[in-house]
Amino acid sequence: MNKKVTIYFPFTQGPGSGGNNFLVSLKDEFIKMGVYSDSLEDTHAVIFNSHHSVKDILKLKRKYSEKIFIHRVDGPMSVYNGPHDKRDNIVRLLNQQVADGTVFQSNWSMNQNKELKLFNERKAKVIYNAPNPDVFFTKEIKDRKNTKFKIISSGWSNNPNKGADILKWMDENLDFNKYDFEYVGPINIDFKNIRKLGSKTPLEVSEILRNGDVFFFPSKFEACSNALLEGIHSGLIPLAKKASSNAEIIDNEHMLFDDIESIQPKLNYIFEHYEELLYSVKIQKLDEIARQYYQFAVSFEQPSCVKFNYWKSYTQYWCSILRNKLGNL
After folding, report:
1. Does 196 reside within a domain?
2. Is the domain of 188 the same as that of 264?
3. Which band of pLDDT confidence, cut at 50, 70 and 90, is reported for residue 252?
4. Per residue in 130-177, pLDDT tens?
5. Do 271 and 170 share a structural domain?
6. Is residue 139, in this structure, part of any structural domain at all?
7. Strand order in the sheet with 45-49
8. Residue 137 lies in a domain
């Protein structure tokens, strides 16, 4: 009989963050594999995510101390948002007190977390993300019916590190006789030329993507961007900021830009070598990603030898919350 796993996360339906969409898809894939259980009583391993639902996770660790707890880590958030964001302290706490194993979404994320001493030296593994293949897929034949080269970008945050300054520059300097540009998601910029489509459901996003040619991604710090992967899996050629995990995912200099001045030449190259570059980025599909998660979770026969102290962990959690609030004053 297969050992069961569960994902403990505050799932949302409709438009949502990349992390939420990935975990929804991962859960569905586990169900297809016949290894998912909603019952914590019947599960072998609990997968939980970063700093979410911490109080619940601590209570679950106390109640189900015999279960395996796998921590999917994001960030580091202090790299995304600056040193005032103290949520990494919560990640450190969960890795030290709760996690038997840690999943990092990229080598970049793992190395950054190591530098900041945010995880224990117990078992860890890098597993990338992947979108739902029933939603994000390519057309059988990628045609070029667009009269213009269509660029699409998406995001769920107004964090300046997501590249708002670059998007504004694109809006003011791109040749819009040659290119169309659409942006999916909330953004606090009044574009003159880029068309804002607002927040969309994953199904709506996928339809928009399949009508595009290039997925433009200017974000500087990403553990493993689900938005970028959705664009690639939908058959768009990516052009991304050469930073953090972006270069790890794409690994092609023609699809990475260093600065604003290099964007137009890169777009010109993609335009001229479209068929050559199309589908050239190597991607892992969701079923493969799910198997990696499952194999990692069931590789633990029993919990780590660290003795869990609920009240100590609970007190440390609230101290971290207080430090985060004081740091934002």
Report:
1. yes
2. yes
3. very high
4. 999 999 999 766 666 556 899 999 998 888 889 999 999 999 999 999
5. yes
6. no
7. 5-8, 45-49, 68-73, 101-104, 124-126
8. no
